[in-house]
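Subject: design request, 202 residues
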């Protein structure tokens, strides 16, 4: 039946759920640490660049968020697979009863099956949405803390401007403060309180 095919498709979406920004970490091999030492008498350049995407992907808090989401995704997958298997058995039973049961009785069974399919589809959609919301909220927390750190670095160094690498064509490694931001972020925000986010979403 078409109903079960829809379930399988949605179930696949859940299992292949990717952690958006976090997945970008594989595309970045490394960012060199800033050479803070300057020649004697030379003033620091009043502009810095930061790779926010790299920072959010590589900081310790982000790694723990990714692990948390992967565990949730795995748990959801097991639960939904069990429900999907149950519906497959119901579908097989319906097929075998089609030529045996009176039309009215078969219609009742078919409607019951359809309702269960629709409920599972809703469950899958809800769990996908929960994962997405957890991800977006955790990223927001990490970015907020990173911005505070960048602001403090700017004050310390008298920077006139700090821009994201996504808006820059080329920049010297010496003005890239991404690694420094990550080091401070790992101290200031060791992990995101996922249980608190969960409570706010309920």
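Subject: RE: design request

Done. Sequence follows.
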């Amino acid at each position: 039946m078409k109903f079960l095919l829809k379930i399988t498709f949605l179930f696949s979406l859940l299992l292949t759920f990717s952690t958006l920004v976090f997945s970008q970490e594989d595309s970045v091999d490394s960012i060199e640490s800033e050479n803070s030492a300057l020649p004697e008498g030379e003033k620091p350049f009043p502009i810095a660049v930061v790779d926010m995407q790299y920072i959010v992907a590589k900081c310790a808090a982000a790694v723990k968020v990714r692990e948390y989401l992967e565990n949730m995704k795995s748990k959801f997958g097991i639960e939904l697979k069990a429900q999907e298997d149950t519906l497959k058995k119901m579908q097989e039973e319906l097929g075998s009863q089609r030529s045996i049961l009176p039309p009215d009785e078969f219609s009742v069974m078919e409607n019951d099956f359809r309702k269960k399919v629709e409920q599972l589809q809703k469950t899958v959609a809800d769990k996908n949405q929960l994962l997405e919301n957890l991800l977006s909220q955790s990223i927001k927390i990490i970015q907020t803390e990173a911005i505070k750190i960048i602001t403090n670095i700017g004050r310390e160094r008298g920077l006139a401007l700090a821009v994201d690498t996504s808006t820059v064509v080329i920049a010297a490694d010496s003005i890239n403060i991404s690694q420094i931001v990550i080091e401070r972020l790992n101290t200031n925000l060791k992990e995101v309180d996922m249980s608190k986010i969960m409570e706010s979403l309920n």
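Residues 2-201 form one domain.
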